[in-house]
Model the fold of this input.
Amino acid sequence: MTELLSLRFLHIVRRNFLVWRKLLVPSLIGNLADPLIWLLGFGLGFGAFLPKIEGVPYLAFLAAGMICYSTMYSASFEALYSAFARLAIQRTWEGMLHAPLTIGDVVLGEWVWAALKSVLSGAAILVVMYALGIVSGWQPLAALPVVLVTGLAFSGVALVVTAFAKSYDFFVYYFTLAMTPMMLLSGVFFPASGLPATARRLAEALPLLHATELARALTLGAVPVRPLVNVAVLLSYAVVGVGVAGWLIRRRLMK
Amino acid sequence: MLEVESLHKSYGTREVVRGVSFAVSPGECFGLLGPNGAGKTTTLRCCLGLTRPDSGRIRLAGNAIPQGARRARYRVGVVPQFDNLDPDFTVTENLLVFGRYFDLNRRDVRARIPQLLDFAGLTERADAGIDTLSGGMKRRLTLARALINDPIVLFMDEPTTGLDPQARHLIWSRLKSLLGAGRTLILTTHFMEEAERLCNRVAIMDRGELIALDTPRKLIETCIEPQVTEIFGEGMPAWIEETGRALAGRVEIAGETAFCYCREPDELLRAAGRHSGLRALSRAANLEDVFIKLTGRDIRD
Done:
């Protein structure tokens, strides 16, 4: 049990942080500039043709969704491509396992790291919302813990995908067949309430809908309708994801 | 330092390690030799707790493996078969970051780095990126990195594969100085010269089993005839059948060359000399001859 409760995973977080710091500029552009360009382009350009949605201007509606989309994208990318590079291409994990670190430490470290990195992406959108005057006061900051849990959920699921990957190409399936439909079903760009009942039920089972619901209510000053359900779904994806990923990666590496 | 007892490991129906036992004493250099697929790497992985054996008992640096593997690795250095240096870091940063994995504090790691860079001959390249290093430099850095925790035992999986002779000799001299300092070395290799130069004892593995284990000199003395005469040239096959086989103790034909193993090659050499088309070359038997005799000449893939 002491093996499980150790803080050794922080060594992995620290290593990734040091690399990230070196590659700060391209990393920031990828993780921050990209969603911002989408937000402003779509929010202002497309939003000009739209009436208020759920009582707020389209830009505000979209920005709240973008927080979660950006978090999802950032956590997934890190736990897919970057983690796979460290698993199979650069053999970084192999080196760590030659030191007194375990597969559990490595998976836990990667999980937490990808989530922390994604918090930055989600928080950046929130900062822009403050800067544009879309939000004000303290309540929107309550979205930050939601962003963290969202990051943990997507990083956990992505690590499961990574555990199966033989090459980078494999991730195209996940992006195209899982993330893109999820994005369209989960109320990021338009309210999910308008979807057909089947699609709506499917979206209920996906983490992004719950992240969006919660983050949108918190940033736009509303009272979340079912915060416990939202958090429970996100936490389930996070915990089951990292647990299954740990089991799969152990099976892959301990052979 | 390391005890391995009746180690077994299968992948599916393929048994890759079949009852391997050996022990390595402190300060010894122990070589694990064998053709590709003999089970060397799997055996090493089991010793480090990176693969779970199906059965058998392993103790490394006082710890039962795999239960105590993580604890054992505080006192172990590993040089893997393929370099896994961190390409995003410089030479110095690689050592710094790796040292932290051992829970060493930053100051202690920093203090060790100049000495390790000097050992690896990389002092000038302290701030260089990994992709600017040659293959030999990367290997030396990997070796230096494996020493960051001041290990008492070092595992090396084919430490000089892919290096040119100069780089290989440099690694050998470094390994000798580690042995001189009392560290235990456990290595796998395909290079018989490497094993003969460095190892106190070598174990030859084939198809998952240890088929010989002794000092290189003893293996040469006991496993094979002392002299090898290589005969090649026009008419070799016919000559061997008519004349050579009777004069040599044991003959193996590999491609264009006949390897004649015997105690006294003089008569064989004289007879071959009388045949104008043949060339003969006599030498003392070495570890490679032992290896080939024990594991056969077939290619293993």
Summary: Residues 9-253 of chain A form one domain. Chain A is about 75% helix and 0% strand. Chain A touches chain B at residues 3, 8, 11, 14-15, 18-19, 22-23, 90-92, 94-102, 253-255 (CB under 8 Å).
